[in-house]
C-alpha cells in the first residue's frame, strides 16, 4: 500500500504569515507612538573603544613629536633635563613642539577595544547561572534522595526545605538571604545571589529527582539486590542511570528557567544582563532596541542549552 504524505507547505506558509503579521503589528504599534529607532546607539554597549589619557609627569616642554605608523611619539624634556617618552594615537596630540607642559597635562590618548556594559552583564549572567546551577544540581540530587530515605529525620528535613522554598517567591528569598543572612554572616552580594539561586533551584531539582527515581519499577532494585548489590550500589548503578534519562527534559527546563531567574538578583545591585540593559536605556534612550537585544541574548544562551538537552535525550533513548 502506497502511503500518501500530506503536503506541508501550506502550514509552513501559514507560519510565515503569522510571523509577518506579528512583525507588522510591532511596526504599526511603534508608528502609532511615533517611536524613532536608533540601532546605531546599541553597538557601543557591547564593545567600544576606550580612551586612556597620557599625561606629563612633571614640568617641562615638548621637545619632539614624530609619527610611527598609527601612533605618535612625543618626547618631553623636564626642567632637570630628564626625558619622558609617550606614545599616543595619531591625531590625538593636543600640543606642538616647543609648548610648555605642567605636571598632569594631557598630551594625547591611547585607544583600545573593551567590552561594554551589556557584554559584562552577559558574562555575569553566564557565571551566575553556571555556578548556581552546579550547586543547585548537587543539592537537589542529595535532597531528592533524602526524600526517599527510610530515615524519618532526613525525609522530614528535606520535605520542609523543599516545601518552604517552593512555597515562597524567589525574590523574597533573595531579599531574606542578602539583607538578613548576608548581613549576619557578612556575605558579599555575589555570594548571597548564588546561594539564593542554588537553594531555589535545588528544591525543584529535588522534586524532579524524586519523581524520576519513583518512576522506576521496584523490580529493578530488587533484581539488583538479588545480584549481590547493596542499596547504595543499586541506586548508583541501576536506578539513577535509568531515572536520569527520564528527568533530563524537566532538568533542562529548570536550568533554562534558572538563566532567566538570574535577572532577579539585580535587586541586590548585581549588574547582570537585565540590569545592564536598564542602565544602558538610561543613557541611550533606546528602550525598544536595548530590550530586544537583551531578549536576544537570553535566547542565545537558552536555545543551545535546549538543543543540547534534546540531542542528549535522543542519544540516551537510542542506548536503551
From TrEMBL:
One of its GO terms (biological process) is amino acid transport. It is a multi-pass membrane protein. The keyword Transmembrane helix applies. InterPro entries: AA_ABC_transptr_permease_3TM, ArtM/GltK/GlnP/TcyL/YhdX-like, MetI-like, MetI-like_sf. It is found in: Cell inner membrane; Cell membrane. The chain crosses the membrane at residues 126-146, 167-185, 191-209, 288-309. GO terms for cellular component: ATP-binding cassette (ABC) transporter complex. Gene3D superfamilies: MetI-like (1.10.3720.10). Keywords: Amino-acid transport, Cell membrane, Membrane, Transmembrane, Transmembrane helix, Transport. Its main location: membrane. One of its GO terms (molecular function) is transmembrane transporter activity. Residues 122-309 form the ABC transmembrane type-1 domain. Part of the binding-protein-dependent transport system for glutamine; probably responsible for the translocation of the substrate across the membrane. NCBIfam families: HEQRo_perm_3TM. Belongs to the binding-protein-dependent transport system permease family. HisMQ subfamily. This is Putative glutamine transport system permease protein GlnP. It comes from Pseudomonas rhizosphaerae. The lineage of its organism: Bacteria, Pseudomonadati, Pseudomonadota, Gammaproteobacteria, Pseudomonadales.
